[in-house]
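QUALITY CONTROL LOG
STEP: pairwise intake check
CHECKER ROLE: data steward
CRITERIA: each record must contain a sequence immediately followed by its structure tokens, with no blank fields

ENTRY 1 OF 2
RESULT FIELD BELOW
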Amino acid sequence: MSSNQLIECVPNFSEGRDMNIIKQITDEIENVEGVRLLDVDPGKATNRTVVTFVGNPSSVTEAAFRAIRKAAELIDMSRHKGEHPRMGATDVCPLIPISGISMEETAAYAHQLGKRVGAELNIPVFMYESAATKPERQNLATIRAGEYEGMAAKLKDPKWQPDYGTNTFNEKAGATVIGARDFLVAYNVNLNTTSVRRANAVAFDIRENGRIETDANGKNMTDANGEPLRIPGACKSVKAIGWYIPEYGIAQISMNLTNINETPLHIAFDECCKSAQSRGLRVTGSELVGLVPKSVLLEAGKHFLKKQRRSSGISEKELIHIAVRTLGLDELSPFDPSKKIIEYLLEDSSSNPLVQKTLIDFANETASESPAPGGGSISAYVGALGVSLGTMVANLSSHKAGWDDRIDYFSNKATEGQQLKDALIDLVDADTHAFNKILDALRMPKSTDDEKATRKAAMHAATIGAIEVPLKVMKLSLASMEMLKEMSENGNPNSVSDAGVGALCARTAVEGAALNVRINCNGFDDKQFVASALAQADDMLIKAKVSEREIIEIVEKLIV
């Protein structure tokens, strides 16, 4: 097993009102080493809490078992009432591969968990999605049909023997569904109605399963085998129902987006808007249940900007702001991206201390007696500022009156600039990290031959890293000069001086990084690597000086 395997677990517990019970369950998760609790999302009307945590597979399955055990102890399903379909104290517990692990391996961990829950807790367990033991058990809705109230009778049916545990109904804990699946987005769209029937009509328009076809008399139509004929909905890989939420006084379309590559969140939202409008309704906002990958909101932001005929080459923060406002994710409660986006929750700000600083603090840190940050980090930052100016010109040009036919061109250039800027910003701290690795190697013991060999190998690897980082700065800054030249030639003439300043910054970044390459190559005993690095640096330095002259000549002609 790879040491960097990461899986996510998103159990749904049938308690959304008593925070003391919810806290006791999540405490069980947090007490397991190797697990990080990311999100706890209780719902009063649904009387259900969605919990999200990540970690290595063994730790996650241990935490999941403890949480299921605690939920069975504290939640009495015979007294449970809520809007959401449910069948157990822990209703569903999916494992999701995040990195370094396959779906097949994740499914194996799900079976380990299911077997243990069934054996030790006497809870009937059904396996679903990629961990399903039978094709008819892949779909959660099929397993959950009849819900808690129908489970005692269902367990007596030979076709519905649980995969693990007894077929004796557990009146207090109910039954649990455990499985392995791809990332699922739980998403609700708000309507300006209290009618569940009308919300369901929209849901049937949207969901892949659609609705049953009826004849002129309203009778369900069937095929030759007696199976209902269905009119498919607009969105693939979407499950949806309509419900009423007394807490908010509105009806919602509650969706599970089971494949966000087939139907992204913004497309599901647009289709809900289209269907609602055709039925005299209006979408007023929406809400995310649990967490989402950052890409979900970035793609949504780009989609809505494109519909507005605006440049999508803006910062990550701005794209997410556009997505949140357009989707109305803050209609029912405040929406904090830092608490709803997986990548933000997993970020360790301590690993990038320089770029987290204010401009004043960054300057003060540079001016201090510490040798880092030094010229390498400054070169990367100057390069980021240079390409940011070119990106600004592209975005301003996309809004110029009479240039509507060129929006896509400038938007693409701005997006290119944002990518270069972000990559250069990453290198600000990377340069300092590389320098620190050299210091770490120098501090290693060297008393014995083995220690000397280990220290030498560490020093060799650290020096290569210290050379490769400024080479990357040079490559990215040189690449940015191509975009800056295009913006000086084709961009808004009123901003041409900004493109010129950007070119000066980019050339400075290339020259500054070249100095770092040279000093780090000095005395390095890997002659072949040194020769290659110096040749690359010299070539890029020549090209950067030529590009700078060309851009400045263009700029000076236009500002005379």
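ENTRY 2 OF 2
RESULT FIELD BELOW
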Amino acid sequence: MKKAQLLAAAILAAAMFSVQANGSSRPGWLNDAVFYQIYPSSFQDSDGNGIGDIPGIISRLDYIRSLGVTAIWINPIYVSGWTDGGYDVIDFYRVDPRFGTNTDLVTLTKEAHERGIKVVLDLVAGHSSDKCEWFLQSREAENLRYSDYYIWPSFKPEDDSEGKVLDYAAMVSSKAGLLRKFVPTDAPRGPYYIKNFFDTQPALNFGFADPDPAHPWEQAVDDPGPMAMRRELKNIMAFWMDKGVDGFRVDMASSLVKNDPDKAATIALWNEDLSVWFNLEYPEGVLIAEWFNPEEATRAGFDLDFFCHEGTYNYSTLFFNTDRMSGKPKDCYFSLEGKGELRTWYDLYMKQYSAVKGEGYVCMPSGNHDFTRLAAGDRTSEDQLKIAMSFFLTMPGVPFIYYGDEIGLKNISGLPSVEGAGNRTGTRIPMLWDSTENAGFSTAPKDRLYIPQDPDPGRRTVESQEKNETSLLNYVRALLTLRRNHPALGNNGDWKLLSDPDKPYPMIYEREYEGEKCLVVLNPTSKTVNAPFPYYKSEDLSVIGGSYNSCTIKKIRRVDTMFISPVSVVIYKVK
């Protein structure tokens, strides 16, 4: 090797060591970032075909900026077979014509950047569509360019877990979960391929953690096929980053290496290669994991991960007031009945928050495209939604607002499945902008809209909420202004629960950053509640935000006690 090549290799190795040795290399703009998630088919239609598109998003950038948002995450916009809402990708390098062109996306990034808004794309790293050129070639024969981009078992091992319910972690990690992903096929490479989710989503081949010699299809992570797949993934990331985007939310990020129950091989794949490469090439780029285990995701080199609806680490006990499958009511913390509990969530959250503090972020989104919206079941009134949004926007980590949650867009149950959404269809309904036909979403005939809109004649729209100073929309704007003006309430502020997690109402927590302290008191129930409060006197606290009738400190049997009125939240600054 020439001296120049040796020097370059040494510099690269030193840089890689530095990134790993110094821990997190997350971009500085994440310190005060606030994300807005856009499901593009449902946000704004510009050409009258009933489906949202990129020019539609561009036309709403001023609105997005008005919220106080600094970044947008857009669900997949690539050419797709549309069997799973865009997550079955046919061409990773091209915008689907339903949304526009690659040039439209470049225009979007430029327009967003001019408004101080970052643009993050969804990266489908673990699978493609079965209509993808790579898969069509791979199914034909060995030793072609894309032959080893996929996994082709020659037989199916015995599955002794049939009939057992597997959780999310087992489905993406265990041998039993993998065996349920064998898809029979008549392809020349058959008789099976391995999928990631639907049959139309064949898994990309990043190798196996511990290849079984009896299974010739199980390639090691450093075999030529998996290594070629890594290079392809880097090429995809570089292609879009070089077009001006600011990073990726990585779909099913923990699913890449197969038979990897402790995720050690998947973590190494990211932390020793993909994320290190990305940080070196694009130091201001962000990597967001859909991992549902922030501790593992941070070790893998991601800047943040979600704590929401899947896996062990979730907030289901806080917010899910309807069963995901049946739609029937269920108890949760944020409800009027006051039958919820805090301990389950608190223990899980504290484990993750403590593990990643200073290295990455635990993020709790207001919702997303895969589970029931915040405004669902009997939690649809503005006063209830203000309490819930207050929680989301005063917690540490990077906030994510799912489009429409700022106006209380409702989850609509009972809709026919659209493009593989199943019972998720009701969380992807078109945005409600104004009082015109189709609420300003599209000029298409109503029966041609991507998904039917909320039929309620009294439905909340951006237009109606703009005119009301006390609306949920303007309350969310005020919360984000408060968060921006008080670093203690921001992404990096410390968090401590002051109330007893075994006596759940009210929830009282403290935020602190560089000497500034704030206090949040939450009561989502329909009754006045109280809790011992020996921490501060009334004169120590000044109200800086909230939605409430009363919140007072009284002595009960010589113990200072905090009382807060029904469906209320108060945000204090500690003097």
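INTAKE CHECK: passed for both entries
DESCRIPTIVE NOTE, ENTRY 2: The first helix runs from residue 3 to 21.
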